[in-house]
Amino acid sequence: MKNLLSILTILIFSAQLSICQHYYDDAFTAQKTDSYSIDGVGDESFWEQCDWYDIEYIWIPYGTAMSAGDFTGRVKFAWTEEVLLVLAEIEDDVLSDVHPDPQDNYWNDDCFEVFLDEDYSGGWHQTSYNAFAYHCAINEEDVIDSGDDNAFNVYVNDHVDFNLDTVDNTHYVWELAITVYDDSFNESNPTNTTVTLSHNKEMGIAVAYCDNDGGSERENFIGLIDVAAEHYNSAWQDASVFGKLTLNDPDAVPEGIGITAIPAEDIKVFQDNNSNLIIENPAKTGEKITISVFDLNGRLIMESSESLDERVLLNIHNITQGTYIINLRGETMNYSKMICKY
Ligand SMILES: [Ca+2]
Ligand SMILES: [Ca+2]
Ligand SMILES: [Ca+2]
Ligand SMILES: [Ca+2]
Fold first, then answer.
1. CA of 251 to the centre of ligand 1 (A)
2. What is the pLDDT of residues 140-175, one digit of tens each?
3. Which of 50, 83, 136, 328 could form a disulfide with 335 if both were Cys (CB 3.0 to 4.6 A apart)?
4. pTM (two decimals)
5. Ligand 2 centre from 56 Cα, in Å?
6. Fold of 22-248
7. Where exactly are the structural domains of the chain?
């Protein structure tokens, strides 16, 4: 009996380990927006604040290279409290949809896939809703995920609102708004609850493209994550191969610290034409502050202690072009502003 208990303990512990692990440390950031339009055109201003991530790893056939013009892709992420937003630019020489039944061989037609693990748990999801593998068809309508033990290849069209826009004969834009469900989702429940998104929330994410150029099967499967050979086709089954997506709201003020000394609208943070960061504070408070520059993945790029006089100048020549979050923190203030370094 004692041995049996020991074995059970080991099994349970092993199961917990397998549920919580993540094989890769790829990190991505989604930026907050309050409004959007799913029209296949990424011209909303918030998309400019989001980084592109290349869809560049050939999962099938593993480790091979694409011919010029066959496929290129890149993706970016944003969010509101209601949805995760995905924008992808795809180059594909032939759009192909040879299996007319959306539930038949959906992965063998041209198809844009978003893999989403609401709570970043990792772990097996092929036969559960621990995570979702949203296979979006080029008909701009059908979204299929493998279901659970009771339901195979289920329609989850109401999870993803998407639009596929044709730019020219070989270039396309996919724009998606994904309503987020947690692992309590049940396909037979007509009133599944959805998850409200918030600043700093972490979710498991991967993206891939199934490229079929006219045959009966996809010729290539190209993904966002640089997986090992053993995981060349694991994403549809195992959320542990996903990367981490962090939701960022640049306007969020950390709890317990507010701007008390100076109204936020009175502080101006911008870059001048000589690659200097300028902070203007008409209140001339002289408060000792720490100026921190973060990239969109939350990495600290540089930091400086200054006195918040009427005008503070900080040399940022050595920072590469891109979007950054500037944080000013002092005894009575905590203020963040996003800037584009050019
Ligand atoms: Ca749009
Ligand atoms: Ca192709
Ligand atoms: Ca999960
Ligand atoms: Ca294709």
1. 22
2. 999 999 988 878 899 999 999 999 999 999 999 999
3. 328
4. 0.72
5. 13
6. Immunoglobulin-like (2.60.40)
7. 22-248, 264-341
